[in-house]
Amino acid sequence: MTKITFSHLSLVALLPACQDAAVTKQTQEIETRVVASITRALADSVDQPTTTYVVTTLHTWYQSKVPNTIKLNPKTEGIYTTHAAILKEAARQSARFAQHPGLSPERKTSIAAGYQKLVDASTANITELTNLATSGSSMSEAEQLQYVSTLADKETRQLALVKYYGQRTSSQLARVEQARRDEELKHKAWGY
Question: Taking the complete model, does pTM exceed 0.85, yes or no?
């Protein structure tokens, strides 16, 4: 039989503190990696206040009292990186359509408004996640994991919608442009 001494008990008492330090370090490393990734992704396409908002929200999440099983869940990181991808794609496509010579100012405004609605829906998902971190939720860990999983799925669908909206708008513009060219060719060939 092993005799338990005072030194064994002190090691057992130190174990939770060591685990907390390791988890804190892991949380900081993940936060640093995700912030760097998102900052790089948004650097050329999104204005600085938007990038700052996303990074601040991300920091709030990783510094929250949410259990580490939820905080360090890969789906959480996915929500933030997908949101960054949505912001980047919406900014890129909005700028592209804003410069398109075949669009009327009303149509350009309409396209920009469509992208803004999609970005707003994605931002609402991020706000829900932030509320989970700041409100002291009464949900169990299992419920929180399910909630995060549902938000991750919503963000993935939102990114697919942003891409679809861009493809659909491009397709519509291509049809309009083709009809205009066909009309020009018909006019050149037949004189009317």
Answer: no
